[in-house]
């Protein structure tokens, strides 16, 4: 157990040898007790560089190949399972329940403090999808953070992928209702082929916990819609970053209604044109990389594609002095 004044106590993580986890504790919220989980995998040789990775919606950290890639390139790897996700979920909680993205600042603050105390002076902050939105805003809101030296986002959730009229009229109204009735639910419109494209028991090559990363999620709470909408408004205005940022996304979006090869070669969750549009509105040293045949989670793409992701990522980090 840990809080802001105690050292974390690590134990073996569910991912096995080399992976450790520590529980982070926070004040109770509107559902009661709250925890998050910090996972780490240290590089073979001591290093002052680290990465802190934040997962997306209906997700948790399981991407061991990514962790090992960072270790091989001289980074200690850390990841958070945010409150109410994955390892951090508690029986009295609603999965993934959040009312504002800033709720996650507490675990990011604490994780960075631990990373600094463990001998690191340079951190790459990283996030996928909703985690990409969260880490972009965290970086913008903490321009003088002593540890954050760069940002890498993998298909960040900078806008809702839905009919433009429905989005323009519906999302603001749903957000207003969500402030008053946060637990009301609304159809998620998430493509049903995404998780089947990934899991090894279906069409993919990856093994992960299907309770923590659920195959279907037909209804989403309006509290989540509101939290994302309010966060995206800031992105849409154009945030300023004072560290280099690498924004990666697939080269195309598709929405297959039945099983199709597109589910293994495109982003079926977000519209990549939105990611590109709002990345270009950000101010600072911003690099945008379009990955041919990339999935929504680029590091889970087919092997040649993810090899390209890592090649571009580590070339960019070297160019930026990390």
Name the overall outline: globular
Count the DSSP helices: 8
Highest CATH level, the class: Alpha Beta
Supply the helix-strand structural class. alpha/beta
Global mean pLDDT: 96
| Ends apart, CA distance between termini | 31 Å
**Total domains:** 1
Strand element count: 11
CATH names the topology as: Rossmann fold
Query: What level of helicity do the residues show?
Result: 25-40%
The CATH H-level superfamily is Alpha/Beta hydrolase fold, catalytic domain
Rg, Å, rounded:
18 Å
Instruction: Identify the CATH architecture.
Output: 3-Layer(aba) Sandwich
Please trace the helix and strand order, writing H or E for each element: EEEEHEHEHEHEHEHEHEH
Largest sheet: 9 strands, mixed
In terms of per-residue confidence, which ranges show pLDDT below 50 for 5 or more consecutive residues? 1-5
**Spatial order of strands in the largest sheet:** 1-2-3-5-4-6-7-10-11
Our estimate of the beta-strand percent is 15-25%
Pfam family, one: Hydrolase_4
Organism: Acinetobacter bouvetii
InterPro entries: AB_hydrolase_fold, Hydrolase_4, MAG_DAG_Lipase
Domain Serine aminopeptidase S33: 47-252
